[in-house]
Amino acid sequence: MLEKVIKGLNISSDGIYVDCTFGRGGHSKKILSEIGENGKLIAIDKDCEAEKYAREHFGKDKRFCFVRNNFSKIIEIIENYNNNKKIDGILLDLGVSSPQLDDPERGFSFQKSGPIDMRMDKSDKLTALSWLKVADQNEIKEVLKIYGEEKYAHRIAKSIKDSINKKSLSTTIELAEIIEKCYPKNKKSGRNPATKSFQAIRIYINNELQELESFLNSCLDIIASGGRIVVISFHSLEDRMVKRFIKKHSEGKDVPSKIPLTETSKNLSLRKIKTTLKANDDEVALNKRARSARIRIAEKI
Ligand SMILES: C[S@@+](CC[C@H](N)C(=O)[O-])C[C@H]1O[C@@H](n2cnc3c(N)ncnc32)[C@H](O)[C@@H]1O
Predict the structure, then answer these.
(1) FRET partner for 267 with CA separation of 20 to 30 A, picked from 36, 178, 204, 230?
(2) Residue where one domain finishes, among candidates 145, 176, 205
């Protein structure tokens, strides 16, 4: 996966790159190893733990700069940190990082007990539990259905509200148990029944789809001609958004096929780069998370 992503960015030694989802810098480290002295890497993450790690481990590298912010603010970030100069490649590795998942205090895991938090940016006001408390049953049901494609959304939302009313919900394990009880015994597959609901609540709490949409709506203005966009997504809704975005800007809006339009008159700004979308077996063996990953790549014309 890492090699595929780096190849997708088509890195040039003195190029300017942006890693919009630094995490613990796996991709950033590789990008830095590919650029030369005059190259530059701007890394973004909204998580203060990621910022701490970046400053400790990458802070001395003059080619590197870290910005704690939402990647939807990409235009502002490039204005401030790159003097409005266009960039040569931009990477998004969407979703939650392993350190976020592994730390029970962050509340992303249904396997370890912790507060029901799930904020990637701890300065955000709304934790997952505070939202579950204020949201009505229908709102919770819709989130589970839309973002989690959860078949038992109605039952789960009702059970969550019932236990909140009884003041008996405070930890991730309690939430996972409530969800598990809503699944009919014969419908439990290999996957933990809490998987979809936790994913849905996390996506909602962190505005993940809105963040991606705002990013896609603004990123074309800051990429240099020949510059690349590489997006790794783990959720079908995210992948669909990226796929449509690339299609719209590489094929143009729907026009009657009889009208011969040139590339210029269609006002195209991207060229789709063909790649294998999914990780292969070896990549999945190395990193289980890669199983549901999809990579999409496009180049600015
Ligand atoms: C899957 S991890 C990235 C892992 C990273 N590629 C690495 O090699 O370690 C996603 C990271 O993106 C961050 N993130 C998610 N949405 C974000 C957003 N809208 N703005 C900024 N950072 C975001 C998360 O906090 C998390 O650290």
Answers:
(1) 230
(2) 205
> pTM (2 decimals)?
0.94
What is the strand order of the sheet 223-233 is part of?
Answer: 64-68, 40-45, 16-19, 87-93, 223-233, 294-300, 270-273
State which of 21, 70, 211, 287 you would mutate to test the pocket of ligand 1, scoring each by most atoms of that ligand within 8 A of its C-beta.
21
Is it the case that residue 65 has pLDDT exceeding 70?
Answer: yes
The whole-number pLDDT of residue 292 equals 85
Cα 181 to averaged position of ligand 1 atoms, centre (Å): 32
Residue 5, helix vs strand vs coil? helix
pLDDT in tens, 163-208: 999 988 999 999 999 999 999 987 666 789 999 999 999 999 999 9
Q: Which is nearest to 4 in space by CA: 208, 228, 217? A: 228
The residue nearest atom 1 of ligand 1, judged by CA position, is 97
Q: Which ligand 1 atom minimizes the distance to the CA of 99?
A: 27
What is the residue range of 224's domain? 2-98+208-300
Total tally of structural domains belonging to the chain: 2
